[in-house]
Amino acid sequence: MVKPFPDTPTFQDFDRPVRLEGDLFDLEISGEVPPNIRGVFYRCGAEHQFPPRHGDDVFINGDGMASMFRFGDGHVDFRCRYVRTEKFKRERMARRALFGHYRNPFSDDPSVAGVDRGTANTNVIWHGGRLLALKEDSLPVELDPNTLETIGSWDYNGRVTSKTVTAHPKIDPETGELFFYGSAAKGETTPDIAFYVADAAGQITRELWIDPPYASMMHDFAVTRDQIVFAVMPTTSSLARIKAGGPIYAWDSKLPTHLGILSRDPNATEIRWFNGPSRWMYHVMNAFEEDGKVHVDSCVSGRQSFPFFPDIDGHPYDPGAGRPQLTRWTCDLRSNSDAFEERLLNETGCEMPRIDDRLAMAPYRWGFMLHHDAERAIGAGRGRQGFNAVARVDAATGAIVDSYFTGPDSGPQEPVFIPRAPDAPEGDGYLLTVVNRLAENRCDLAVLDAMRLSEGPLALCHVPFRIRAAIHGNWVDDRVHPIGEPF
Fold it and tell me: Taking the model in full, what pTM does it have?
């Protein structure tokens, strides 16, 4: 018998685990889904299978739940499945939680000592003919693209020697190459970074091990046409702390931020480090080069955004300092200075930035992101993360030029962009976002014209139950991988 989940903020209201696997054929739709949208919107999020071992937990420690919205001929189908990691399988056999705190193997049941703790709960990508579920503390897990059944851990036929792989790899839209890294690459709290490149067929072509200035959490990085940018920021790890039962990460404002620039030249091994004030960034919108300068546009805050990673000096969490804002970091490769420049692009709180991926790694105009429209009401209840709208932002000025307000009792999840056609102008296409209907305890998938967000959805695809918030997802066009047979 499974006991109830704890009555704590992590597991209350809209954030309570659903624990549902299933298929929903032919969703009810208000409006019309454009027939040229043909493919699959894959998503991955955290969904605890069992109540936590130690009474409470953080949401990012949940088991991986992969889901898919399949589009074809104006119809949309939905499917969701747990990722069958080693952790998931061991706990299902035991019918209880065996693994403890987030990234803390010392808090586990002795029966699972040495077992892979990865949850594959953060992102899902298509590359080299494989669908991969990702979590930055472990290797990718391959899924069947039609059924979402788990195939198994993927180490690129032994070519990836890092123990970890980022949840935010970057695909070059021109070459098809995949750029990725592993932080804490030799094990929890080690400083090592292992950097990799895989060609369009998924074969590893480059491996480089990097010794950063200090050990830190690294959730995302940036790639341009010619450079790689690694962000080492003062959310620091500590082996002694997790052995004592504390959190793996803590914020240390005494440390600077370091941006490491590595050339994409396959023979390059030297990294140039640029330094700046203590900052935190979870997600990059895009990066590009201009006149010898490398620009990185990200959602940046003055301290670690998650309140459950404490201040190392015991200072209370400051929500204002933890609020991410769209910011541009610039490293001048022609300068003798080791400092990077910082420019605030937009003051509104934002997160989950996305672009038209055809412009990835290059100068671009349009970005999309979740934001809080202060002029609009926001409903009570959890699941909204403080955001009530999806915005289109002009990367040249930082101005929000268009916005879709999801409603007073609603909140959007991460958007994803679909081009109207392969040769359509930048931003000409559709935006998908799952909308949490907090008062109704269910969700809609909104299909928006990306250049006319304020006009509202072209279609709302109704899901008659609550879908736990995915962390990230991606669109795979039918021309890349056929959508498969009906469920």
Answer: 0.97
